């Protein structure tokens, strides 16, 4: 029986073109649908209807907004770098679509009389390709902020660079656990390795770290610091309009779909049906075209979590955001990788009983709990260094920057007596002559 890579290698050119067009259409349609779904779900959370005018249930509202953006005036700042300003949104959008090429949407099927796999290409390093594509997207953001010639987009782009670097490391470390478990970097092999059990409960720490990192990686609330409207006007795309702004919007939502599809592939069994359905007739629902339904349904679950977080959580401060990435996610991922490697070595060692393995896992959990309890609470130390505002707990600036006290008010001179106000006409004329002012 041929492997997935061998099946894809035998695809004719016309079939590969069909797959490319289908992937591009899937990304665009998912973007339009996600914009509508986000507005409807957030509206429901806020007790308002959301879009409900254009099309049935407002489904065509996103398409109408896209057409409106296309006819908007395309404005380019005078001080902007022309070519970099033009290429930045393209650099953001293209890697987002490229990441779909290694995602397995389903098993082997027969398409137009040709036996193939529901995947564009199966690479031995497919997971690294997705990480590389997500990393390249930040170049478009940084270049857009630099080429705009404005300080606020530049600040937003620099924030995005620091953010993506921080959470890209945590995301990569979370995937290491999956690689150690499946012994492969190929996305199709990872899906096949989950036939006996999904990794979201076999590798819970990796799943949680990845779920947090993918929200920070896509610049979504509550981690949307690069486009924090309250601080940066609009972030890196402040100076963009028309179709260039639409490309940034498209790249953001396609990236959401990509990281959600990757989470489905790595931790939720990919295109495999959930347990009760997978046991029907010996797994008949895991064959044919049915797995596309399970894959899209799991992806929608993660996309709904994106919208849910935006409607419920406030935006984090930048120091809280960076502290979470560097001081929590990265150390926890490193300790977890060591435990996984040790457990694999212990599991493959002959002569080790099941009781000894359970004792090892129990000791590992105790070590993690002790490590978490011994971590110092940095917030308490920060609050002790400053004088808090009464009743709020937020720190104040240093005392040397405090506003000085107002000087005492000067007293007005006493009013003259009535006798002193009455002056002779000659005295008044003499005073006017001295001052040179004869006006009344």
UniProtKB/TrEMBL annotation:
Q: What does this protein do?
A: NDH-1 shuttles electrons from NADH, via FMN and iron-sulfur (Fe-S) centers, to quinones in the respiratory chain. The immediate electron acceptor for the enzyme in this species is believed to be ubiquinone. Couples the redox reaction to proton translocation (for every two electrons transferred, four hydrogen ions are translocated across the cytoplasmic membrane), and thus conserves the redox energy in a proton gradient. This subunit may bind ubiquinone.
What is this protein called in UniProt?
NADH-quinone oxidoreductase subunit H
Q: What is the lineage of its organism?
A: Bacteria, Bacillati, Actinomycetota, Actinomycetes, Pseudonocardiales
If you read the UniProt record, what top EC class would you report for this enzyme, in one word? translocase
The annotated region (Disordered) lies at 392-440
* UniProt similarity note: Belongs to the complex I subunit 1 family.
**One annotated Gene Ontology cellular component of this protein:** plasma membrane
Q: Quaternary form?
A: NDH-1 is composed of 14 different subunits. Subunits NuoA, H, J, K, L, M, N constitute the membrane sector of the complex.
Instruction: Note whether Transmembrane helix occurs among the keywords.
Output: yes
The places in or outside the cell where this protein is found are: Cell membrane; Membrane
* Record field: catalytic activity: a quinone + NADH + 5 H(+)(in) = a quinol + NAD(+) + 4 H(+)(out)
Q: Does the keyword Transmembrane helix apply?
A: yes
Source superkingdom? Bacteria
Q: Where is the composition biased (Basic and acidic residues)?
A: 431-440
Q: Which Pfam families match?
A: NADHdh
| InterPro entries named among the record's database cross-references | NADH_UbQ_OxRdtase_su1/FPO (IPR001694), NADH_UbQ_OxRdtase_su1_CS (IPR018086)
Q: What is a biological process (GO) this protein takes part in?
A: aerobic respiration
């Amino acid at each position: 029986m041929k492997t997935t890579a061998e099946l894809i290698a035998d695809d004719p050119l016309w079939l590969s073109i069909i797959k490319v067009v289908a992937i591009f259409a899937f990304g665009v349609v998912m973007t339009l649908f996600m914009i509508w779904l986000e507005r409807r779900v957030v509206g429901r959370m806020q007790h308002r209807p959301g879009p409900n005018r254009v099309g049935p249930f407002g489904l065509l509202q996103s398409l109408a907004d896209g057409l409106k953006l296309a006819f908007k005036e395309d404005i380019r700042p005078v001080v902007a770098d022309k070519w970099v300003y033009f290429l930045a949104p393209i650099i953001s959008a293209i890697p987002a679509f490229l990441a779909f090429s290694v995602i397995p949407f389903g098993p082997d099927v027969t398409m137009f009389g040709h036996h193939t796999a529901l995947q564009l290409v199966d690479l031995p390093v497919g997971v690294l390709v997705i990480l590389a594509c997500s990393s390249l997207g930040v170049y478009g953001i940084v270049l857009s902020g630099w080429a705009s010639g404005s300080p606020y987009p530049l600040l937003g782009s620099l924030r995005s660079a620091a953010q993506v670097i921080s959470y890209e490391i945590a995301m990569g470390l979370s995937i290491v656990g999956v690689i150690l478990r499946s012994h492969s970097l190929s996305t199709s092999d990872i899906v096949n390795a989950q036939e006996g059990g999904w990794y979201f409960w076999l590798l819970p720490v990796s799943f949680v770290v990845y779920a947090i990192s993918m929200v920070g990686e896509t610049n979504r609330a509550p981690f949307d610091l690069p486009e924090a409207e309250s601080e940066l006007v609009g972030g890196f795309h402040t100076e963009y309009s028309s179709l260039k702004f639409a490309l940034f919007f498209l790249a953001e939502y396609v990236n959401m779909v990509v990281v959600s599809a990757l989470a489905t592939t790595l931790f939720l069994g990919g295109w495999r049906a959930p347990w009760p359905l997978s046991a029907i007739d010996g797994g008949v629902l895991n064959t044919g075209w049915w797995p596309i339904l399970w894959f899209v349904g799991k992806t929608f679950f993660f996309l709904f979590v994106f919208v849910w977080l935006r409607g419920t959580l406030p935006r984090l401060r930048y120091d809280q955001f960076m502290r979470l990435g560097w001081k929590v996610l990265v150390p926890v991922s490193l300790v977890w990788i060591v435990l996984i490697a040790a457990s694999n070595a212990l599991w493959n060692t002959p002569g080790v009983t099941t009781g000894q393995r359970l004792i090892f896992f129990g000791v590992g959990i105790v070590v993690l709990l002790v490590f978490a309890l011994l971590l110092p609470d940095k917030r308490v130390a920060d609050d002790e260094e400053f004088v808090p505002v009464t009743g709020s707990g937020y720190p104040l600036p240093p005392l040397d920057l405090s506003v000085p006290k107002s000087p005492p008010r000067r007293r007005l001179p006493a009013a003259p007596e009535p006798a002193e106000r009455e002056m002779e006409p000659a005295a008044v004329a003499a005073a006017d002559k001295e001052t040179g002012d004869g006006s009344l």
